[in-house]
Amino acid sequence: MIEVSELLKATQGKLICGDASGRVKGISIDSRSINPYEAFCAIKGNNFDGHDFINNVIKNGCKCVIAESFPKPLNKDKSSLTLIKVENTTKALGDIARFRREKFNIPVIAVTGSNGKTTTKEMVACVLSKKYKVLKNEGTKNNHIGLPLTLINLDETHSAAVLEIGTNHPGEVKYLVDIAKPNIGIVTNIGLSHLEYFCDLEGVYKEKSVLINNLKTPGIGILNADDVLLKKRAFGKKTGSVVFGFGLVNESDYFATCVKSSGVKQRFLVQGKYWFTINTLGRYNIYNALAAISCGRILGLSYRQIVLALAKFKFPYSRLNFLEINSVRFIDDTYNSNPVSLKQALNALSDFEARGRKIFVMGDMLELGSRTEEFHRQAGINAAGICNAFIAVGKYSRLAASAAIQEGFSIKNVFTCDNSVQAKEILFSRLSPRSEDIVLVKGSRSMRMEEVFNK
Questions:
Q1: What is the DSSP string of 201-234?
Q2: How confident is the model at residue 194 (pLDDT cuts 50, 70, 90)?
Q3: Can you tell me the distance from the alpha carbon of 176 to that of 26, in angstroms, rounded to the nearest whole number?
């Protein structure tokens, strides 16, 4: 429960009417699903304005509203309502979340990076659940709305929180770190993503490193020691937070060796002593596991506890998931795409043992700025040495297809189309995949690549 007096203190809002001693069970920004015991925060979004739905939520039983202004007339007598006026509802949401976080002295772990954030967050939460009652973001609710809504749910039952922090514009990590006040920060990697706004790798690194620079005492950083930029921080002069590194190549505090792949499972040895198994493709998922292992050990879990947790871990939807549909095998990596994650997915396809063909269905990679065409051509060159058939979806992926052909890839095995529905038709009518084949499907979120194998 959250007291109205806490909402007022957190937001510096003005009580227009109602009782400051009242309570609400939580905060909602969705007028369609709010229950009568929650407060409605009228957020202004890109496609909607919550202020337009204030009378609707009141009509449906909501008794507490946080807003920048209120409709005239209200469709209910004010005497039965609690109305709080604030200058900015988005900021107020963050202020309430920060207030809730500061009430509880528990470990808060924040995860950021160009790739692997969600998987790492889920792995860390899975591992820590062996010892702690964990609060975590659901799915990818990692922005200025999703993270505060998650933290507002923090209560006395939780003994740890694991939060994913996303960004595609400078300054967003700092805003979210100021709300979450994490003690432990994990950076998975620095990759070529959102270059439309960060310009280059150094820009991405500067934004992600804000997490490690602003940890709450005692600050502990957990960094990928094999990442070109992060290893400088992991191995460099120790200032500020205590930093631990994880990796497979460079010497690090938590390291893996003896990687063995079999089907859709991978085994690896940690610290030269402990065998781990994860149920997924992709060498990079070992890095995600190492981040979770590092965090678990730092917070007092035994290796046995962590081994058991990761052995049962189910990987998030659309992230190198292995699917079999109508006897056709797919690698579903449709959640999103950028140059690094695409290369990693192609490596997973290369490593996969298939008696039949390896078919790659590629959708455009977006938000890459001035180097968009360069990155797509390079993707085509990479694909040419790995797959047997190539379906390019979108105007930029056509450049990848052309580059693959220039690399010597057979033109009769290259197909181009405008959208994922057309790609599905090409796949099943012209390529006719069989059970011995394996089909990798990947592209940026807005390309809707999942439609390739959806019924």
A1: HHHHHHHHTHHHHTPPSSPEEEEETTSTTHHHHH
A2: low
A3: 20
